[in-house]
């Protein structure tokens, strides 16, 4: 958070207490949203959010800010549609402008099998509450006039699906809105406090060891991005997570308006226009697991090639900057939320490359789980136990990139 | 990622020529056979630090090599 925002919002930064009802590790979107909904919906305010750097420093400040619900499996469609609706009302609820803008998302297909996937996506979405329609090339050109339907004669656009409710929002502002809403209700948010260990007693987690001393808690929630394996191993919990870097870049200002979020699941590439007019482009994760935040020239080359082929106007733009985040990837490309098998320790993880859009629903459902002790129906399919019971939520085709 | 991997057959080559291959390591503390299978199939150590890994030189000699890499810095410590 920058100095200007701190002055404007007038956050109070209290000294940490020695004990809380709930300690949330990780001051990103998911951690702060969990704290916010605990305070706002359940009246649980004896809560601390511990952040190693500053709030929103990790993937909450590095994502490409896309909100959508056009997933491929019923459980995911229901969950992300809930999140999409919460985002719609977040400005009214928190009284903070998060620059939420409905844009619509276009998935294009370059092969017959991709076309079948998009048709199936439209059907599954419609059946489970999200609005997605199957579109022909002619309609695609109307929705997005800049697209080259021949795909440079390499990747012809055969059709696709259109998801009109998809939106973007300013990621930092979403984080600050949740932080402010939580802190106004008495939640403590502690920046620059690093969790170094978990306190265990009688097989359950009873608190955290931090750089500011031990803090006791009735429940500890791991809401860490990327580094969650290390945190969970302190409680003896094994996670099916690999941490991969994900890169993105923005170009300089594009003179015209580019209304839609354009995406090609087959090419693992997508782009949208930011509020400043820059074109924001993202692609797939780096192949090898890594915690380094290094960016590569290969990514720029690879990604620009796809962008220029589908959208020839991109040729005249220049790349302004690129950045990298580290993503916790699950084997089935779906999140892992809820109980871990160790009492007093919950996780919300596996947010891979698709975490930003899930912030409100993830926070709301985790808060409900903490308040009631029962896993809510909406996130029950996404439990850590699904791997042992062979109920994988496989949805790579929807979650691959953004 | 460090930009180059030293292939014992081809010399230093860009990382994009290689495929990453992981080595699942099941902790000794897990003794039950089913639990070991589950761990081997899904769970990962995902260390923040050095790990031993396999790489396949897909666009080169098409042979496997083993190396140790620090996942915090992407520094390759030893090639085998």
Describe this structure in words.
The complex is a heterodimer of chains A (402) and B (80). Chain A is of the alpha+beta class and 402 residues long. Chain A has a domain at 16-63 and 171-240 and 332-399: FAD/NAD(P)-binding domain, CATH 3.50.50. Helices cover 29% and strands 26% of the residues of chain A. Chain A has 11 helices and 19 strands. In chain A, strands 1, 2, 9, 10, 11, 12, 18 and 19 form an 8-stranded mixed beta sheet that branches. In chain A, strands 6-7-5-14-15-16-13-17 form an 8-stranded mixed beta sheet, with helices on both faces. In chain A, strands 3-8-4 form a 3-stranded antiparallel beta sheet. In chain A, helix 2 (29-42) packs parallel to helix 7, helix 2 (29-42) packs across helix 10 and helix 3 crosses helix 10 (359-372). The longest helix of chain A is centred in the N-terminal third of the chain and has 16 residues, at 112-127. Chain A is globular and about 65 Å long. By secondary structure, chain B is mostly beta strands. Helix content of chain B is 11%, strand content 38%. Chain B has 1 helix and 6 strands; from the N terminus they run E-E-E-H-E-E-E. Chain B has one helix at 33-41; strands at residues 4-7, 11-14, 19-21, 50-56, 64-70, 75-79. Chain B has a 4-stranded antiparallel beta sheet with strand order 3-4-5-6, with no helix packed on it. Chain B has a two-stranded antiparallel ribbon with strand order 1-2. Classes of the chains: A alpha+beta (402), B mainly beta (80).
């Amino acid at each position: 958070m920058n100095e200007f925002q701190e002055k404007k919002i007038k956050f109070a930064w209290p000294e940490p207490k020695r004990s809380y009802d709930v300690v949330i590790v990780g001051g990103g979107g998911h951690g702060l949203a969990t704290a916010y909904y605990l305070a706002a919906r359940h009246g649980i305010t004896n809560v601390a959010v511990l952040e190693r750097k500053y709030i929103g420093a990790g993937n909450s400040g590095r994502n490409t800010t896309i909100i959508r619900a056009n997933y491929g499996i019923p459980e995911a469609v229901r969950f992300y549609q809930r999140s999409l609706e919460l985002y719609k009302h977040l400005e009214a609820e928190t009284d903070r402008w998060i620059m939420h803008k409905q844009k619509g998302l276009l998935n294009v297909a370059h092969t017959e099998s991709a076309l079948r996937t998009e048709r199936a996506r439209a059907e599954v979405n419609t059946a489970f509450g999200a609005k997605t329609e199957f579109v022909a090339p002619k309609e695609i050109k109307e929705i997005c006039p800049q697209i080259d339907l021949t795909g440079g004669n390499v990747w012809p656009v055969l059709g696709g699906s259109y998801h009109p409710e998809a939106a973007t929002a300013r990621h930092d502002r979403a984080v600050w809105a949740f932080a402010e809403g939580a802190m106004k209700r008495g939640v403590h948010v502690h920046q620059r406090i690093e969790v170094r260990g978990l306190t265990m007693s009688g097989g359950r987690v009873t608190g955290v060891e931090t750089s500011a001393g031990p803090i006791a808690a009735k429940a500890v929630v791991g809401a860490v991005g990327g580094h969650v394996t290390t945190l969970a191993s302190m409680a003896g919990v094994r996670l099916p997570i690999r941490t991969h870097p994900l890169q993105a870049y923005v170009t300089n200002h594009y003179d015209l308006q580019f209304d839609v979020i354009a995406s090609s699941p087959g090419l693992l590439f997508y782009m949208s226009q930011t509020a400043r007019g820059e074109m924001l482009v993202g692609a797939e994760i780096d192949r090898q697991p890594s915690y380094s935040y290094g960016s590569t020239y290969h990514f720029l080359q690879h990604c620009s090639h796809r962008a220029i082929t589908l959208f020839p106007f991109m040729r005249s733009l220049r790349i302004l900057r690129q950045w990298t985040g580290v993503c916790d990837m699950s084997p089935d490309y779906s999140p892992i939320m809820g109980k871990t098998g160790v009492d007093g320790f919950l996780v919300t993880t596996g947010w891979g490359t698709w975490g930003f859009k899930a912030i409100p629903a993830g926070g709301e459902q985790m808060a409900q789980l903490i308040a009631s002790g029962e896993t809510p129906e909406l996130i029950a399919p996404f439990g850590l136990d699904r791997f042992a019971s062979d109920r994988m939520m496989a949805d790579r085709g929807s979650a691959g990139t953004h | 990622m460090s930009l180059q991997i030293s292939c014992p057959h081809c010399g230093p080559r860009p990382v994009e020529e290689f495929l990453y291959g992981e080595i699942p390591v099941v902790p000794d503390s897990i003794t039950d056979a089913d639990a070991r299978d589950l761990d081997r199939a899904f769970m990962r150590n995902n260390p923040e630090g050095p790990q031993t890994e396999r790489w396949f030189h897909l666009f080169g000699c098409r042979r496997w090599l083993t190396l140790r890499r620090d996942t915090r810095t992407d520094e390759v410590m030893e090639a085998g």
